[in-house]
Specification:
Elements (H helix, E strand, L loop, with lengths): L3 E4 L5 E10 L9 E6 L4 E8 L4 H13 L8 H26 L5 E10 L2 E7 L3 E6 L2 E4 L6 H7 L5 H5 L20 E6 L5 E5 L1 H4 L4 H10 L5 H14 L6 E10 L15 E2 L2
Antiparallel strand pairs: 1-2, 2-11, 3-4, 4-5, 5-6, 6-9, 7-8, 7-10, 9-12, 10-11
Length: about 270
């Protein structure tokens, strides 16, 4: 998708958005699904699992529901609409698994929600959202994986985690439980914030330090080029999985109430 600037409905800001997805060099089917609705203040990456067409069904079901989200009246309304659509997608995926007699069908999901000068990141699974602010890259989400739980408990070191045999085992996904199990982090936007949403097909080949370098070096360039570079590099390094990225740059439209030069609260939610 070519990047372009789209103003928000409230007129407070404009968004440059670019997306890119690739099946990779090993898989025959792309089970990732993407959505960019800058007019609604919503961006989504869903990464399906379950094999064959099941994972594809799960991720596409999530995106299909999100496409109906419409134009929210504010941050709370957008969040409510997002969770309503996610709950409906969860039920549809759960029912489809029963229909075809398959135990595990689901999809990870990350959603970036922006209204006025507020953003929220909602996720389930190991797809991620990063925020680049100035020279600092922050991993906003925390993976719902077995290895992350062990790291959080202090049971293994970061070095051990890299070689952990079950590092890709996820502990949450949409469609595998009766209701969606998600976490959320929220905060205030600053002019120039850049968000990266991605599936694990990207982060398999990039650590956070290298991502920070790429995003900082590309700060003055169109997002389309950065998306192409990130996906192309993942493919060159093996491309064992589907690779998907969504990038969003936020630009202030000279209205009061917008955070600038560090005048913003810390992220609220998981830390």
């Amino acid at each position: 998708m070519n990047a372009k600037m789209v103003a928000s409905v409230d007129g407070m800001m404009a968004f440059e958005t670019s997306t890119r997805t690739d099946v990779g060099r090993v898989r025959k089917l792309n089970e990732d699904s993407l959505l960019a609705l800058p007019e609604s203040g919503l961006w989504v990456v869903a990464d399906g699992m379950g094999g064959h067409t099941a994972g594809d069904f799960a991720s596409q079901t999530i995106v299909a529901q999100m496409k109906t989200i419409g134009l929210p009246t504010g941050a709370m309304d957008l969040r409510a609409r997002f969770m309503d659509r996610l709950t409906k997608a969860n039920a549809r995926i759960h029912a489809h698994a029963a229909e075809i007699g398959q135990k595990t069908i689901g999809a990870t999901v990350v959603g970036l929600l922006i209204q006025q000068d507020h953003f929220a990141c909602i996720w389930s699974g190991d797809s991620r959202i990063y925020r680049m602010r100035g020279r600092k890259l922050t991993r906003v989400t925390r993976d719902h994986t077995e290895v992350q739980a062990l790291l959080d408990a202090g049971s293994i070191t970061a070095e051990q985690a890299e070689a952990w045999p079950r590092k890709n085992v996820i502990t949450r996904a949409i469609g595998v439980t009766d209701l969606p199990e998600c976490d959320m982090v929220e905060g205030k936007l600053a002019d120039g914030d850049v968000f990266l949403l991605c599936s694990d097909g990207l982060t398999e080949y990039f650590d956070d330090s290298e991502l920070a370098d790429v995003l900082y070096e590309g700060v003055d360039f169109p997002l389309e080029g950065m998306c192409a570079h990130l996906v192309g590099t993942a493919l060159a390094r093996g491309g064992k999985d589907n690779v998907s990225v969504v990038m969003v740059r936020c630009q202030q439209l000279d209205l009061p109430g917008f955070a600038v030069d560090g005048d913003y609260p810390e992220l609220r939610g998981l830390q």
